Amino acid sequence: xxxxxxxxxxxxxxxxxxxxxxxxxxxxxxxxxxxxxxxxxxxxxxxxxxxxxxxxxxxxxxxxxxxxxxxxxxxxxxxxxxxxxxxxxxxxxxxxxxxxxxxxxxxxxxxxxxxxxxxxxxxxxxxxxxxxxxxxxxxxxxxxxxxxxxxxxxxxxxxxxxxxxxxxxxxxxxxxxxxxxxxxxxxxxxxxx
Amino acid sequence: xxxxxxxxxxxxxxxxxxxxxxxxxxxxxxxxxxxxxxxxxxxxxxxxxxxxxxxxxxxxxxxxxxxxxxxxxxxxxxxxxxxxxxxxxxxxxxxxxxxxxxxxxxxxxxxxxxxxxxxxxxxxxxxxxxxxxxxxxxxxxxxxxx
Lengths: 193, 146
Fold this sequence. Notes:
The structure holds 2 protein chains of 2 kinds.
Chain A (H helix, E strand, L loop, with lengths): L1 H19 L18 E4 L4 E3 L7 E7 L6 H16 L6 E7 L7 H8 L7 E4 L2 H10 L4 E5 L6 E6 L2 E4 L5 E5 L5 H14 L1
Parallel strand pairs in A: 3-4, 4-5
Antiparallel strand pairs in A: 1-2, 1-5, 3-8, 6-7, 8-9
Chain B lengths: L1 H17 L5 E9 L7 E10 L5 E7 L3 E12 L2 E7 L2 E3 L4 E4 L5 E7 L8 E8 L3 E10 L1 H4 L2
Parallel strand pairs in B: 1-10
Antiparallel strand pairs in B: 1-2, 2-7, 2-8, 3-6, 3-9, 4-5, 4-8, 9-10
């Protein structure tokens, strides 16, 4: 009998411990080795500087318009995060920097991004300027010939950088992060300013 | 009356035995809506090998696209690498899942842009099962992102 009570109490203790064990809140960090201001050309052919977005939270993602899977999915996931943010989404801007300036000129990027309802800003430029920006964010990309009608593709870093209102990288979203996780982290950042 | 039931039962048993068991199960086939300026679409589905033999997916063709390729995705140090697969081996009882962010079927050079809500025919060529034709839904990727 005493043994049974002990088992029941232990089980109760384990269950309540699990219930009380709250999920860790998303963490914001400082990444002094990542980021910095840069100038590239936006989808309207105008100069764009990251400084232009001071006061906004920024999601920065590198990709290319001929990307079949990861890039459109990441852009779509960011869109889903915007929907979860509701009115707070006004304080967030998304930047899509092409890794393929050879094919992705301003017009092409504009056409491509018009598909995504939340109005991401597309950036292109000379390859050497883009390489400088990838260097700032330690983004790797390798062009690979495919031999198919697509010509070539890129192996590339898939992290999306969350930048605060002062232009500092505060979080890196990975491929496995879901839209609701992204929205939660962005909300924390917006609260902190 | 008794004879009638006897014959009907025999026909039922004969038909049941004669019915060939499906060797493949193909589920949730869908294709991404065309993104302007991209020219590339992706197809996703789950293919389960219900047979007791290895099965190989050799190729896919679709009237709306010039070519289709199978791609696997591997992540190494935060870098996503995409590799073309000549064919896809599916072991007995196993499933091959083509899904967003993972292995996918790349559809190249579309003849017409695809719109969400449309249906699209795909022909899958298997080594043992031959050609399996199916219809996939065209979906907006933004609606599928979770």
